[in-house]
């Protein structure tokens, strides 16, 4: 998709798109490793046939994911204009860049809360189902990008499409989790007990995630801030 998008929307806009995509993904580090911890415990309790244990872990993870995502979104929302003003972007007004940063925050919020539910198909060893979800999301995203690019609707509509795609992903993951575990129950009362189980494991996962996120996305963010959005595309495309 990279050559096609660069041809249709331009190098600068595509670089800005990559920058915001990396920013949205970097925000995922605030899950504190709870996603992998939930996956580990869901698999453990599934092996023992303990549905109550699964509900306890998924409930704790969901409410924590929801609280963390709302907290991060609320804290970052007022600074969207600051982030956009720091970027070296040509061809976009300050207001348009601010809206795109806010859309990146919304995309993060919509995708982040699905972490608790995605642990169920993976913990149940139904990677066939989970892979279909991943492939399906990719197909929908690519089709959406092609339509937006050919219609020349611009980056704002493209990022709105990304938010819609992430919302559809979350809905699909929740439905899949309920189909695989009809007795799935999300209860706020289970947070304390579930948190005690996942917190110890999640700490070590969190440390590894920080390193992984920095390795994957920090270079794009630094280039976007200090050199310009176009340089992000020039760097990322050949490396891909």
Secondary structure: elements and pairs:
Layout lengths: L1 H8 L1 H16 L7 H15 L2 H26 L3 H7 L7 H19 L2 H9 L3 H25 L2 H27 L10 H36 L2 H11 L1
Helix pairs in contact: 1-2, 1-8, 2-6, 2-10, 2-11, 3-4, 3-7, 3-10, 4-6, 4-7, 4-10, 5-6, 6-9, 7-9, 8-9, 10-11
Summarize the structure.
This protein has helices at residues 2-9, 11-26, 34-48, 51-76, 80-86, 94-112, 115-123, 127-151, 154-180, 191-226, 229-239. The protein is mainly alpha-helical. The mean pLDDT is 83.
Percent range for helical residues? over 70%
- List low-pLDDT spans: none
Quote the beta fraction: under 5%
Classify the oligomer.
single chain
Structural class: mainly alpha
The averaged pLDDT comes out at 83
Distance between the ends: 11 Å
Count of distinct strands: 0
How many helical stretches?
Answer: 11
What is the H/E string? HHHHHHHHHHH
- What overall geometry do the principal axes of the alpha carbons give? globular
Radius of gyration: 19 Å
3D structure, described in words:
It is built from 11 helices and no strands. With 240 residues, it is an all-alpha fold. The protein has one domain. The longest helix has 36 residues, at 191-226. The protein starts with a helix and ends with a helix.
Keywords:
240 residues; mainly alpha; 11 helices; 83% helix
